[in-house]
Design a protein that fits this description.
This protein is α/β, with parallel strands linked by helices and 450 residues long. It folds into two domains: 67-108 and 232-443, Rossmann fold (3-Layer(aba) Sandwich); 112-226, Rossmann fold. It is 40% helix and 16% strand. The chain has 18 helices and 15 strands. The protein has a seven-stranded mixed beta sheet, sandwiched between helices. Strands 8-7-6-9 form a four-stranded parallel beta sheet, with helices on both faces. Helix 12 (266-280) links the parallel strand 10 (257-261) and strand 11. The radius of gyration is 20 Å and the shape is globular. Bound molecules: pyridoxal-5'-phosphate (PLP). Pyridoxal-5'-phosphate is lined by residues 109, 111, 138, 228, 261-268, 336, 338, 380, 382-383, 411-412. Pyridoxal-5'-phosphate (PLP) binds next to helix 12 and helix 16.
Length: 450
């Protein structure tokens, strides 16, 4: 019988995070304040604990993972690496396809990997409460779980349309002890400001971030936690790629190409950065960020300084952005809706060191359904982007006869996304051209720098 599952022992859980900054050809562009000057790291202490601020600006290649965080991570890590032989067969491809299964965490995605680290450092710093935002609920659930593990209260501002359409994730957060509110709320200045302009606002991630940041900035016992985009978040996710590398060694393989969904960039950075270290040392590996055609920040955005939220409370970050008030159209069902992109990933992309593709939504769900029918696991709509990227390449290999080794990040399962699958299966999901006009309009509101 062919071995398809590659498993590590609990003791093989990485004991350091890998910091890609150490291997980047140029130092990261600094975060800027509203005056256009670099933000001193101390300014971030208002909403983040010192340990995370130090990680945010660190250039050390390896950063030790505290024992308490490793212990929490062993609840679901090391996660399995699987060779998708049934999918390979269905595609009739000579390519070998592996996936890293991050859907095995209690919250069903890779996001708890950073949530436990963030909760730990906040607890250490004497913080009692965390605020955050969530869209579909994956991050809110992950932080609720982590708050429960380390004894912190968690308040989640959930994008209103998801709050209404995804009641089960809301309940999952409450089960793990969090308070959940539909954003925009009337509890913050930012929320009231939006409601005054748009009383029927469906909310957006940018608005919910504004509310969570505002509350954290206004209370000494409360900090803010972000589930993606920031350097320290991507850092915490690098256990994914480090484990995958060891597991592929067990399989006697090394990837030619790696595919990951890419919204704010944490799951892409998590799987790809440890392989970027090899690439920087001369190895040939292609790292592909896969994004939705309807929210294409890398492939159709501009590389410019922009804020991370709608109300402009965050520092300016140099990133690929569609403009901070860009919202993908309502028909888009595949997640990955953030207007911007991790600054580290943006810089690597700008320098031509990583690749990106955009995939239309029916192709992503078609890939997800084929994956479910062959490998059994129903991928999260976000994860379907990676599946679709790998399938495109595997089909290309079939034409050329190349036996490439492909690896993708199965960042989560789709058990709470059945309504999106239902719309796909009922033929209701349509592809649409990326909203060029909406993006052009929103890019006019980019902050002026310098
Ligand atoms: C959040 C999420 C992603 C996207 O992560 P980013 O950091 O925004 O790129 C991908 N897959 C799943 C399952 C997620 O929950």
């Amino acid at each position: 019988m062919q071995q398809t599952r590659f498993l590590l022992d609990q003791k093989d859980l990485p004991d350091h995070w890998y910091n890609v900054v150490a291997d980047m050809p140029n130092p990261p562009a600094p975060y800027l304040g509203p005056d256009g000057n670099p933000v001193p790291p101390e300014a971030m202490l208002q909403i983040f604990p010192e340990a995370l601020v130090m990680q945010e600006v660190s250039a050390e290649r390896w950063i030790p993972i505290p024992d308490e965080v490793r212990e929490a991570l062993t609840m679901w890590h090391p996660s399995p690496l699987i060779r998708a032989t049934r999918l390979e067969k269905a595609l009739g491809t000579p390519a070998k396809i592996y996936f890293k299964n991050e859907s095995v965490s209690p919250a069903g995605s890779h996001k708890p990997n950073t949530a436990v680290a963030q909760a730990y450092y906040n607890k250490q710093a004497g913080i009692r409460r965390l605020t955050t935002e969530t869209g579909a609920g994956q991050w809110g659930c992950s932080l609720s779980l982590a708050g429960q593990i380390f004894g912190l209260d968690v308040r989640v501002y959930m994008v209103k349309i998801s709050y209404e359409q995804k009641p089960y994730r809301r309940t999952l957060m409450r089960t793990w002890g969090a308070e959940v509110f539909a954003s925009p709320t009337d509890m913050t200045e930012s929320g009231r400001h939006i409601l005054a302009q748009h009383p029927d606002s469906d909310g957006s991630l940018g608005i919910a971030i504004s509310e969570a940041v505002e509350e954290a900035a206004g209370r000494d016992d409360t900090n803010y936690a972000l589930g993606s985009v920031l350097n320290h978040v991507l850092l915490h996710q690098t256990i994914i790629g480090q484990e995958a590398k060891k597991q592929l060694e067990m399989a006697g393989d090394y990837p030619d190409m790696i595919f990951s969904p890419c919204g704010g960039g944490s799951c892409f950075g998590g799987i790809a950065f440890p392989f970027f270290a090899d690439k920087a040392a001369g190895k040939d590996v292609t790292l592909v960020a896969v994004e939705p055609s309807s929210c294409p920040s890398l492939t159709k955005g501009v590389y410019a300084y922009d804020v991370g939220d709608t109300e402009g409370l965050t520092p300016l970050m140099k990133m690929y952005t569609l403009g901070h008030d860009f919202m993908p159209p309502g028909i888009h069902a595949g997640g990955l809706r953030y207007h911007g992109e991790s600054a580290l990933i943006s810089q690597l992309y700008d320098e031509g060191l990583i690749n990106a593709i955009a995939v239309p939504q029916t192709e992503t769900f078609e890939a997800g359904v084929l994956f479910a029918r062959t490998e059994g696991i129903v991928p999260a709509p976000e994860s379907c982007h990676a599946v679709a990227g790998a399938i495109r390449e595997a089909r290309r290999c079939k034409e050329t006869g190349e036996a490439k080794t492909l690896l993708f990040n199965l960042s989560g399962h789709g058990h709470f996304d059945m309504s999106a699958y239902e719309r796909y299966l009922d033929g209701e999901l349509k592809d649409f051209d990326y909203p060029a006009e909406a993006i052009a309009e929103s890019l006019q509101h980019l902050p002026k720098v310098g």
